[in-house]
Specification:
Blueprint (H helix, E strand, L loop, with lengths): L4 H15 L7 E7 L5 E8 L9 E4 L4 E10 L2 E9 L9 E5 L1 H4 L3 E6 L5 E6 L5 E3 L6 H18 L1 H13 L3 H23 L7 H20 L6 H4 L1 H23 L6 H33 L6 H19 L2
Parallel strand pairs: 1-7
Antiparallel strand pairs: 1-2, 2-5, 3-6, 4-5, 6-9, 7-8
Helix pairs in contact: 1-4, 1-9, 3-9, 4-6, 4-9, 5-8, 6-8, 6-10
């Protein structure tokens, strides 16, 4: 287990900086087609993220864009426009975000057609426009949601720290594979049930549960008692905590939205993306452990674990107190 000690500290520092940055989460642009040709475009962006405040959403030149409302709510700027297009639809029109090249930011685009079809796309500097199709193909859905799952895992510091704790708690590789698999099964179950509307838990409560899981795992690492639940039954406990983390993953899908015509595919793809992100974290840990063992030797891990425990305790009380 000592092979991971230096690496844990480095990973902790790396992802702490990224997770605490206001620029990691994409801003949101929504287009909604209503009845009688009514089209509404809504733009939501954090006022803390200066780089994206200069962005300007646009629809094709043959569409008129009339400012309807603009207001600030809890440091979030909400702007809406009335859109008038030929044939009263955005199908065949191009939605673009001017200024992405200079900002380096990303924007989450959601398009809701009046016939119930739903499209989702992440606009970036490399791909800052989206021609709205009559029907989104399966490959686009698969690619988008896999990418989203990977990004969510890699910027989710609480999820990463829990995975790191699991790796530290289970030094035997074969046993680790089984434990990580059970964690995957756990969060896949609640992710699916919540997305399908069969289980409903508030996002705030889910975040409290996740913070508690990290705090519990960190305390187990510091406890020398080998008969504790997590050390004695790591697979069962990993599956249990996986159920809690799945609720957090589901809240992300709830915010982004899921195309009803591709519900199963988007759910599978997002979950696959999470697993890929999880494997990336574990691969970095194992590869780093090899380098530490080869060139540095044994390094104490107590201080980084205390840091994880303190951070997760802060999250827990912050989230429970609102």
């Amino acid at each position: 287990m000592a092979n991971f000690r230096m690496l844990v500290l480095l990973i902790f520092a790396l992802f702490s900086a990224k997770a605490l940055s206001d620029t990691t989460a994409p801003s949101l642009l929504e287009l909604e087609e209503g009845a009688q040709g009514h089209i509404l475009m809504k733009w939501k962006v954090s006022l803390k993220n200066v780089s994206v405040l200069k962005l300007a959403p646009r629809v094709s030149n043959d569409c008129k864009q009339i400012l309807k409302d603009e207001q600030e709510i809890e440091k979030i700027l909400h702007t809406s426009w009335e859109i008038t297009c030929s044939e009263n639809t955005v199908v065949g029109k191009t939605v673009s975000m001017h200024g992405l090249d200079a900002s380096g930011a990303s924007v989450l685009l959601k398009v809701q057609l009046r016939d119930g079809q739903f499209y989702q796309r992440i606009l970036t500097a490399e791909n800052n426009s989206y021609p709205v199709p009559e029907e989104q193909n399966s490959l686009e859905v698969f690619t988008d949601y896999v990418t989203m799952g990977i990004k969510h895992l890699l910027i989710g510091l609480d999820h990463i720290l829990f995975v790191i704790c699991l790796v530290l708690l289970v030094p035997v590789r074969r046993k680790l594979i089984w434990v990580v698999t059970m964690f995957t099964v756990g969060h896949s179950i609640t992710l699916s049930l919540s997305t399908l509307g069969l289980v409903t838990v508030s996002a705030t409560l889910a975040e409290v549960f996740i913070a508690f899981s990290v705090l519990y795992a960190a305390s187990e690492l510091l406890d020398k008692n080998e008969n504790s639940l997590l050390k004695k039954f790591p697979a069962i406990m990993a599956a249990t905590f996986g159920l809690l983390h799945g609720l957090g993953f589901a809240s992300v899908l709830s915010d982004v939205g899921v195309p009803q015509l591709h519900l199963g595919l988007s759910l599978f793809s997002f979950n696959l993306g999470i697993e890929i992100g999880q494997l990336i974290v574990i691969s970095i840990l194992l590869g780093g452990a090899f380098l530490v063992r080869r060139f540095i030797g044994e390094v104490k891990v107590t201080l980084p674990i205390y840091a994880v425990g303190c951070l997760s305790a802060f999250w827990f009380w912050e989230r429970i107190l609102g």
